[in-house]
Amino acid sequence: MKGVFVVGAGPAGIFAARQIAQAGYEVFLFNRDIKPGGLAEYGIYPTKDKMKFGLRKQFANVLEMPNVHYFGHVQVGKAYNVTIEELEAMRPAAMVFACGAQASGKLGLPGEDAKGVYAAKDFVYHYNLLPPYAEMDFSTGKRAAIIGMGNVAIDIAHWLLEDSPYRQQLEEVVVLARRGPMEAKFDEKEIQYVDEHIARDALTAELERVKERCARCNQDVSPEKLFEEHFRRLKNPAFGSVPPRLTFRFLTSPTAILKDEHGRIARIEVAENDLVLREDGSTKAVATKERAIIEADTLVFAIGDKQDPNIGLPMGPHGYAVEPGPETTEKPHFQLWNPETDKPLAGRFVVGWARRASTGLVGIARHDGELGAAEAIEFLKNAPESNTLNEAEILAQLEKKGLRPVTKADLALLARVEQREAATRHLSAFKFADNDAMFKAIAEEREQAELAKA
């Protein structure tokens, strides 16, 4: 049997698995979390039920394929449950790594170990109830700062302003942007979730503060221009914001985090940036020697993620090492590469955010997974028979290591319990926030099913 191992069950991994299974191969998914979905399950804003329900249905359809097998609660990596070498001993004909970008970028600032300083990915995992992040301390105070001006930053602002359990004590969220106001990266539909909180007077004053620096790069940052481009609700003369308030500080780069006597963040030292026009018409932010202090008791940095070196894959200059040389949109590089020997790792491929961290959302990850799967299928056509272990044999190997793998049958039991809980609580959806509760639910539901059969 030519079995294929796919590491990671987010959108890239699941859709890669589907394509390989449709080509007639046995596919074995190994997933860090109990439940599949990755960022589609634990990264999309909690109240976007329609999107999540649609994706869950698609993922369930893939897992229902008889030649797709699932092992959840199994984290692959040299520092984790199962090493790549141990998987290779199970004789896969090919391996596709769709393990995402699980390492957070660091700010590299003095004081970033302060309490109340969080990576955006971890913060999002927390409010989306991913174990063990769901039960960790992600407390916030009166004034929260967010570094970044993309959709993730706005999602976090949304949570803080609308749904956080600490909302009652929150007074202000300030978004810190390295570049100018015309270079916001968030979508119009995302800002609409929070724009009623924007302090229009404060935003107008901020535009006045940075307008000369932006004008040197031919950017008009007048309120009329910016409101038309990014904040349409603010065009209404009758607009009045609701608390807590949302403010912005542009052309700002944090340089240090200052703690209080309890070790929690109290202030952020920032550099004032100049905006410089490049020859190609784009801009870049350049820090000046001028400094300012911003009061904040919470800081979330949404500056992108990076690949986890603890997986054990060879690392290159931009993450996991892939085939060197220029690539195009039509022909991306999925083939893993050994930089030491300058040779490909035969039958080893990387897709999704594991290939290009923080690039695109579900649709792009799906497309990337399918393209990488097509390359793996081409390899498999000429690969020798590998006699890959079957599902029962792999399960036995994992259990022998003391692991508690979750199978497709277990997921079905868990889904039944969660559906009942949602109905009982009058919720559109329910999910457990810790692994032990999920294992307990699976065991009890299995026992009930066995009793019903008897």
Secondary-structure blueprint:
Layout: E1 3-7, H1 11-22, E2 26-30, H2 39-42, H3 49-63, E3 68-71, H4 84-88, E4 94-97, E5 103-104, E6 117-119, H5 120-127, E7 143-147, H6 151-163, E8 172-176, H7 188-191, H8 200-215, H9 223-229, E9 245-249, E10 252-259, E11 265-277, E12 283-295, E13 298-301, E14 305-306, E15 315-316, E16 319-320, E17 335-338, E18 343-350, H10 362-382, H11 391-400, H12 408-424, H13 435-453
Parallel strand pairs: 1-2, 1-4, 2-3, 4-18, 6-13, 7-8, 7-13, 8-9
Antiparallel strand pairs: 5-14, 10-11, 11-12, 15-16, 17-18
Give an overview of the whole structure.
This protein is of the alpha/beta class. It folds into 2 domains: 3-102 and 306-406, NAD(P)-binding Rossmann-like Domain (Rossmann fold); 106-303, FAD/NAD(P)-binding domain (3-Layer(bba) Sandwich), CATH 3.50.50.60. Helices cover 33% and strands 21% of the residues. The protein contains 13 helices and 18 strands. The chain has helices at residues 11-22, 39-42, 49-63, 84-88, 120-127, 151-163, 188-191, 200-215, 223-229, 362-382, 391-400, 408-424, 435-453; strands spanning 3-7, 26-30, 68-71, 94-97, 103-104, 117-119, 143-147, 172-176, 245-249, 252-259, 265-277, 283-295, 298-301, 305-306, 315-316, 319-320, 335-338, 343-350. Strands 3-2-1-4-18-17 form a 6-stranded mixed β-sheet, with helices on one face. It has a 5-stranded parallel β-sheet with strand order 6-13-7-8-9. A 3-stranded antiparallel β-sheet has the order 10-11-12, with no helix packed on it. The relative contact order is 0.17.
